[in-house]
Specification:
Blueprint lengths: L3 H8 L6 H6 L3 E6 L9 E6 L2 E7 L5 E5 L13 E2 L4 E2 L6 E2 L5 E3 L9 H4 L4 E2 L1 E4 L2 E5 L12 H4 L3 E7 L7 H9 L3 H6 L13 E7 L2 E8 L9 E8 L3 E5 L3 E2 L7 H4 L9 E11 L2 E11 L24 H12 L15 H7 L29 H8 L7 H8 L8 H7 L16 H18 L1 E6 L3 H14 L4 E6 L2 H13 L7 E4 L1 H8 L5 E2 L45 E3 L23 E4 L6 H13 L1 H10 L3 E3 L2 H9 L5 E3 L3 H9 L6 E3 L3 H4 L12 E5 L5 H11 L2 H11 L31 H14 L8
Parallel strand pairs: 20-21, 20-22, 25-26, 25-27
Antiparallel strand pairs: 1-11, 2-3, 3-4, 4-9, 5-6, 6-7, 7-8, 10-11, 12-19, 13-14, 14-15, 15-16, 15-17, 16-18, 18-19, 22-29, 23-29, 24-27, 24-28
Helix pairs in contact: 5-9, 9-12, 13-22, 14-23, 15-16, 17-18, 17-24
């Protein structure tokens, strides 16, 4: 049974993820060449969580670029192509296939902006009717010319499956799973026996692993049947529609290759390409030898369903793959406690990761690139048997018996691990591996030299972050910019729209991020930055790790703080006794008319969230009556509200941030100011849990990506969380930290259900209330 962390490592395929970085070091088909034509030269594609545009310009060259233009983020899927590249439909910026900006028609002559812009682009190659893209570090390796793609003595056709609703690894595991064939396809595969009597073996070889089914003889006393196919790492199945008994081919080599035969074997390559974490694209390329119809590797290849294929294969195979893969869904571990032998074969697949230093992975299909597949008959026959011909050294080892077979019962321990030799272990798999990755990332961060962070404006938070970082990482400069979230985020969005990427990390409230950064896909999944294994461990956090995500998708924005109850407001007990004001309903007493200040509840912030809590507790009509008939004063000036509170002008305030109150107390004023916390003020509504204006996210295309990862891990560490909580008088959800605010009502407790007041769902409710309050005709001061 794999852990969630191990599963995520291999099935999360976005930029920067271990699995994504591994897969980006291989060429993948992104479309069939026939899907691009003069009439439709542009096609939108999503590959490994990246939204891209594939095009063919008028010179015949192919390009693959990020969909959104870096100028104003218009979609290049609606653009135009010419002899040089693709042009944005909005302002006419033109890009070459390598991402260079060739033209900016509206810019003044001599403007250097064109040279500063480099759009994301990936190399594309055409082979065997498919268009392959390489999305990894340059220079790109050679595109492997596998036999089915390169043979030229027959006909070739392509089948494109509908999208498989599963992650890429589920589809790859289906390809290497031998035991499902009898049960899923058994009614149509002409097995020759009516009971399950199979044996399975798995043989590592140069490019992957050979899966082998050993079947009973068709006739008593005859040889056992062997059906074997290789899985070419990471996810390509080489298949042949036919079986050869042990010891001798069923047909001669000429017949096997159909040199003049009428019904020769059909050979295919099955490619599984991840669209995102839970959807997979599947292309199958078929080849059948023919004297009458011969295709070169560069010829056009028809795309669609099957022609007349060997009997029984067409329907069950197509439906069977969908039956075996659909419903497996998003990147998550198997819920079954005992996956079984055949299932455990694929489990070892999940333990792969690219080298942490960025080196190419082992078992990559590099060495085969120069082989064209149209050489000597011996190589052709080997490939016709269902696998590429091994290198000479491997053939020698096989002759000496060094490539031994392994019984299926032992495959669970290491069969697919043969594919993964040379890869670093999962960062979550061991402390040693995570320490190694941490040191490598830290070394790279030191070379970057700095990390750029946008954070809250409060001086206490700034002090905690700046001083704590300088103490932990003095050799990496922190460029910290504090300001109101909405203003800073608007600036960031404008910069990114222009293709400028200055920021690495953001600390902000949910509303600002959800409303502005998520729609433009500015943030990278937070889990991709996590290196220290304790951070994503549920045992580290009160109520578990996942509750800290503030966005609905639980990917991008994370709060480490945790409050047992959020203060509804503040009371100055120096001028307002509990006899007058001890519960929320007391606010409508005549003595409090004109004595209440509220931060503008029509704006994003604590004031509107306080209003939302009271609406849940006492109802919308009660709040409207309070606002309109009891002389409540509305303001957008925290300093003014602080003066009113301390001077007893307005001894009851709502919407004040806690760092403002703490600064007031540290200045030696307002020592009688108390928090409105508990059932007397919020009733059964328990507005606690994670939240605040210091939730963390990190940017995609961060200029200092390694330093950003170091910052994220440091920010969520026990050391910083405890220091931060103590300095700002707040509490972290980390179980191993001391409370910064010892008030029992402010400490989250395990086992208590909290109505999280600051996540995306709550923020949407607050936004709706803001709009409604705006129609009530409130006046501000």
């Amino acid at each position: 049974m794999v852990t969630q962390e191990e599963n995520d490592m291999m099935t999360r395929v976005g930029p920067g993820t271990p699995g994504g970085e591994l897969l980006r070091r291989y060429w993948h088909p992104v479309a069939a060449a026939a899907e691009i034509s003069d009439e439709t030269p542009i096609r939108r594609v999503t590959i490994m969580c990246e939204e891209l545009v594939l095009y063919r310009d008028k010179s015949g060259a192919y390009g693959l670029v990020a969909e959104q233009c870096p100028h104003r983020r218009a979609s290049l899927a609606f653009g135009r192509v010419d002899e040089e590249g693709i042009r944005c439909p909005y302002h006419g910026w033109k890009f070459a296939g390598d991402g260079r900006c060739l033209e900016q028609p509206a810019e003044p002559p001599g403007s250097p902006l064109k040279q500063e812009i480099r759009h994301k682009a990936y190399p594309v190659r055409r082979l065997g009717g498919l268009l392959f893209a390489y999305m990894g570090p340059l220079p790109a390796p050679a595109l492997p010319h596998w036999d089915v793609l390169a043979w030229s003595f027959g006909k070739r056709w392509i089948l494109k499956f509908s999208i498989l609703e599963c992650n890429w690894l589920q589809a790859a595991e289906n390809a290497v799973d031998s035991s499902h064939v009898y049960w899923l396809h058994g009614d149509k595969t002409d097995l020759g026996f009516d009971q399950y009597k199979e044996e399975h073996e798995f043989v590592p070889f140069e490019y992957g692993i050979m899966k082998r089914r050993i079947l009973p003889p068709k006739q008593p006393g005859g040889p056992r049947q062997i059906d074997q196919h290789p899985l070419l790492f990471p996810s390509t199945l080489r298949h042949v529609l036919g079986k050869t008994p042990t010891g001798a081919p069923e047909k001669s080599r000429e017949a096997l290759l159909n040199r003049g035969g009428a019904h020769g074997f059909v050979h295919d390559l099955q490619f599984r390409v991840p669209i995102d974490d839970s959807h997979t694209l599947s292309y199958l390329v078929f080849f059948q030898a023919s004297d009458a119809e011969c295709m070169a590797p560069e010829d056009d290849v028809p795309v669609g369903g099957f022609p007349d294929a060997p009997r029984g294969w067409r329907v069950p195979a197509r439906q069977g793959v969908r039956a075996g893969c659909h419903g497996l869904g998003d990147a998550r571990p198997d819920s079954r406690p005992h996956p079984g032998k055949s299932r455990r074969v694929g489990c070892r697949h999940r333990q792969a990761a690219p080298h942490a230093d960025g080196a190419d992975p082992a078992r990559a299909s590099r060495g085969y690139a120069a082989r064209r597949g149209s050489g000597r008959a011996g190589k052709q026959a080997d490939r016709a048997r269902g696998h590429p011909r091994p290198a000479r050294a491997d053939r020698a080892r096989a002759a000496e018996g060094q490539l031994s077979t392994v019984p299926a019962r032992r495959v669970a321990h290491w069969a697919l691990a043969a594919l993964l030799t040379g890869f670093a272990a999962s960062p979550a798999a061991s402390d040693a591996a995570s320490d190694t990755l941490w040191q490598q990332t830290l070394a790279a961060a030191r070379k970057e030299g700095s990390v750029v962070v946008s954070g809250p404006p409060g001086s206490l938070q700034r002090s905690a972050i700046v001083k704590g970082w300088a103490k932990a990482h003095p050799d990496i400069r922190l460029d910290y910019s504090g300001g109101r979230g909405s203003a800073v985020i608007s600036k960031i969005v404008r910069e990114r729209t222009a293709g400028l990427y200055h920021w690495d990390v953001i600390l902000a409230s949910t509303n600002s991020v959800v409303a502005n950064l998520l729609p433009v896909r500015a943030l990278a999944p937070l889990r991709e930055a996590l290196i220290k294994p304790d951070i994503a461990d549920d045992r580290t956090w009160i109520a578990g790790f996942e509750i800290g995500f503030m966005d609905r998708d639980k990917k991008f924005l994370y709060s480490a703080m945790g409050r047992g109850a959020e203060p509804l407001g503040y009371i100055n007990r120096a001028c307002l006794s509990e006899e007058i004001f001890a519960k929320t309903a007391d606010m409508k007493k005549p003595e409090l008319k004109g004595k209440i200040a509220w931060y503008d509840p029509t704006r994003s912030g604590i004031g509107s969230r306080n209003a939302w809590v009271l609406v849940q507790y006492l109802g919308e009509d009660w709040l409207k009556d309070l606002f309109l008939d009891h002389d409540v004063t509305f303001s957008r000036d925290y300093r003014q509200m602080t003066d009113w509170l301390v001077g007893c002008v307005k001894p009851v305030t709502f919407g004040m941030p806690y760092d403002t109150i703490d600064q007031m107390r540290q200045a030696g004023i307002g020592d009688k100011v108390a928090e409105m916390v508990g059932e007397a003020y919020s009733g059964g509504v328990n507005p606690g849990g994670p939240g605040g204006n210091e939730s963390i996210g990190w940017f995609n295309n961060a200029p200092h990506a390694n330093a950003a990862k170091i910052f994220v891990n440091w920010y969520l560490s026990q050391e910083f969380q405890e220091e931060h909580a103590a300095l700002v008088s707040d509490n972290s959800r980390r179980i191993d930290t001391k409370p910064g605010n010892p008030n029992p009502q402010r400490i989250m407790r395990p086992g208590v259900t909290y109505q999280v007041w600051a996540n995306e769902e709550a923020t949407e409710n607050v936004t709706r209330l803001q709009k409604k309050i705006a129609t009530w005709g409130l006046e501000q001061r």
